Amino acid sequence: MSETIEKTESKSNKQEGTLSICDIMKENTSEIIKNMESKMPSLFQTYSNLYTEYLHMFDDGFRTCYMAEKEFFDKLNIDQGILRQIKESSESMRKNCIENIDMTAKFFDEYVTMRISAIKSFDNYAHVMMESYAKMFSQFSKTAITPPTIR
After folding, report:
1. Lower CB density within 10 Å: C or N end of the chain?
2. Rounded distance, CA 114 to CA 74, Å?
């Protein structure tokens, strides 16, 4: 219902050629938000492309490592026990890294969920306060405009 009143007031203000601070702020804010929303998919895709390039770079680096291993490390005849320890250490670091990535992703998901909840709570609060303010102002206007009756 308040949207209908808002649209009606906005249309009547525009027809009369009067400016409304609410219209000005709403239009400008809406334009900024829509612009930001339109950039988000591109921004995320750009970062995804960046990390994909990093991953390919590391993957190519390890291909080079295989060639170096065949040319250099195989000739060193490194003890298999040492290589097993290196493997165990590497797997432990991999496991910790993946757990940290998963925890960070979960943290950001929860953080965004909490922020959205806070925004919705504030929005609900603002609507309740504006409705209360409108009712109070309406009552004030009625008492201020209506002259007292003389007896």
Report:
1. C
2. 54
Residue 1: the pLDDT is: 46
Structure-block tokens of residue 87: 């493997």
Residue ranges of the alpha helices (H) in the chain? 2-16, 21-68, 74-76, 80-145
Residue 66's alpha-carbon distances to 55, 70, 80, 88, 147, in angstroms, are: 17, 6, 17, 19, 94
Chain centroid to Cα 19, Å, comes to 33
On average, the pLDDT of the chain sits at 84
Structure token digits, residue 48: 């995804």
71: three-class secondary structure by DSSP: helix
Residue whose C-alpha is closest to residue 22's, from 38, 35, 5, 1: 5
Distance in angstroms (rounded) separating the CA atoms of residues 127 and 2: 10
For residue 77, the 8-state DSSP code is T
Domain spans of the chain? 9-77, 80-145
pTM of the model as a whole: 0.53
Does the structure show a pLDDT above 80 at 15? no
